[in-house]
Amino acid sequence: MEKIPENVEIAVLGGVGFNSYQEFESQLVNTPYGEVTVYLTTVRGKKVVVIPRHAGENHIPPHRINYRANIWAVYSIGAKRVISTNSVGSMRGHPVGSFVVLDDFIDFTRNRPSTFYDDRTAHVDVSEPYCPEIRIALRDALEKQGLPYTEGIYACTEGPRFETRAEIRMMSQFADVVGMTGVPEVGLAKELSLCYASLAIVTNQACGMTTQKLTADEVTEVVGKAQDAIFEIISDTIEKIPETRNCRCRFAKDGACL
């Protein structure tokens, strides 16, 4: 593996908005959890790595993504900030194509490795799971672009199937949007004291919120149309993120280990 350039500041997880990532310089990063291909670029003068979650010959499904390897790769190359993009279904009637800046989450996943601490006990504080500094930058970027957005709670399910009407009725009591990829990423980032925030795009109404059948094609179509807007949002966010971390994220794992 060639040496990763120094001073990589930010990682973008998801690849949405960076659909030309394969044209970037690629590097293979070895982690204790497997190899990760990262794509290097510069955005608004800052060095950035892009990690497409679903990259692979057959589009890796959400329950098979190697989340630990991806987050460890970010950590090992020295990036301290992570901007995640997620497609979500709305349980609150958000317009399709609108955005949600996530402010909390509920984990309904079942079979995903969700911690780096398999050999010792660590209770990491997630009272503020999404970095406030990145969230402010995301909101500022959305307002600059004049794009509609809200803030909300994210429910993450195991997938790869869509949720049932009963599941949505239950989850809608506690959360605003539902997706399949945001957990365990957010918790893993906390365990490494990384700053992590997520921009969610509403690609469909959740099951039971409409009479229409849910399809993967619908998700792909909405995301495809939003590529340019998402690129501008992420680029503006990267530009607006402060040079120095002043949030509590950098202390997340302090005092966590027994």
Describe the fold and architecture.
This protein has 258 residues and is an alpha/beta fold. The chain has one domain: Nucleoside phosphorylase domain (Rossmann fold, 3-Layer(aba) Sandwich), CATH 3.40.50. It has a five-stranded mixed barrel. Helix 2 crosses helix 5. The model has no long low-confidence stretch (mean pLDDT 93).
Main β-sheet description: 5 strands, mixed, barrel
Number of domains: 1
What CATH first level would be assigned? Alpha Beta
Q: Give me the CATH superfamily.
A: Nucleoside phosphorylase domain
Q: Roughly how much helix do the residues carry, as a percent range?
A: 10-25%
Q: State the CATH architecture.
A: 3-Layer(aba) Sandwich
**How do the SSEs run, as a string of H and E?**
EEEEHEEHEHEHEH
Class inferred from helices and paired strands:
alpha/beta
How far apart lie the N and C ends?
36 Å
Count the DSSP helices.
5
CATH level-3 fold name: Rossmann fold
Strand order in space, largest sheet: 5-8-7-6-9
The overall strand count is: 9
Kindly report the average pLDDT value. Answer: 93
Give me the Rg, rounded: 17 Å
Question: Uncertain runs with pLDDT below 50, 5 residues or more?
Answer: none
Percent of residues in beta strands?
25-35%
